[in-house]
């Protein structure tokens, strides 16, 4: 269970359907990440490595919440612009290229996402992401050291990743409008825990007591 109880008065409402106002870039990232995870897990079943260097991000079992819904929650309850999600994808791609023996799989993809997208107030992002503040602090440090603190993303790199994501959609015959980098202006709702029904499997063998 998460540290915050189900009957917490400030709990964010459960979101079961994607918000129609959600940027389509999240749909692109969801498809790309889901295909990446599926491919990597097939490699794992074939005797490949399941990401030893990413063990700090592994949960005991995959969370029940899907990648699309997880990204949608982060977008809905934070002040991230769509560009933040592209930059987060850049960071994850850099990480796996720096540590080629590591694979993004269902056991680690959610923690990698919330860590890569987070840009302020760890306590808030921990609540949105379904982990404890202490654990997210630890994941952030692990992530930074694995990237050698190489966090700069130039406009040229950013544009190249946008084009890559658009090409992925062409390859899979999914029509998505061009990625927009506009700032998300929705207000942040109550800073509190999201419903935990589908987050109960978000426990880590390395967690320091926030999840059991």
From TrEMBL:
GO molecular function: protein kinase binding
Location of the region described as Disordered in the Swiss-Prot/TrEMBL record: 1-21
Gene3D superfamilies named in the record: Cyclin-like
One Pfam family hit: Cyclin
GO BP: cell division
UniProt keywords, alphabetically: Cell cycle, Cell division
Organism superkingdom: Eukaryota
Family indicated by similarity: Belongs to the cyclin family. Cyclin U/P subfamily.
Name this polypeptide is given: Cyclin
UniProt source species: Cynara cardunculus var. scolymus
């Amino acid at each position: 269970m998460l540290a915050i109880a189900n009957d917490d008065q400030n709990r964010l409402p459960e979101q079961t359907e994607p918000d129609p106002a959600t940027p389509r870039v999240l749909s692109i990232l969801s498809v790309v990440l889901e295909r990446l995870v599926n491919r990597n897990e097939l490699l794992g079943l074939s005797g490949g490595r399941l990401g030893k260097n990413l063990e700090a991000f592994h949960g005991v079992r995959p969370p029940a919440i899907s990648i699309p819904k997880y990204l949608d929650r982060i977008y809905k309850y934070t002040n991230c612009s769509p560009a933040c999600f592209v930059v987060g994808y850049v960071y994850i791609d850099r990480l796996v290229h720096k540590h080629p023996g590591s694979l993004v799989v269902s056991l680690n993809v959610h923690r990698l996402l919330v860590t890569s997208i987070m840009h302020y107030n760890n306590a808030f992002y921990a609540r949105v992401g379904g982990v404890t503040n202490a654990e997210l602090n630890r994941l952030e440090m692990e992530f930074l050291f694995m990237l050698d603190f190489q966090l700069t993303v130039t406009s040229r790199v950013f544009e190249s990743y946008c084009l890559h994501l658009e090409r992925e959609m062409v390859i899979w015959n999914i029509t998505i409008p061009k990625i927009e980098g506009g700032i998300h202006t929705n207000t942040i709702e109550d800073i509190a825990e999201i419903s935990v029904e589908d987050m109960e499997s978000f426990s880590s063998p390395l967690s320091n007591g926030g999840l059991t």
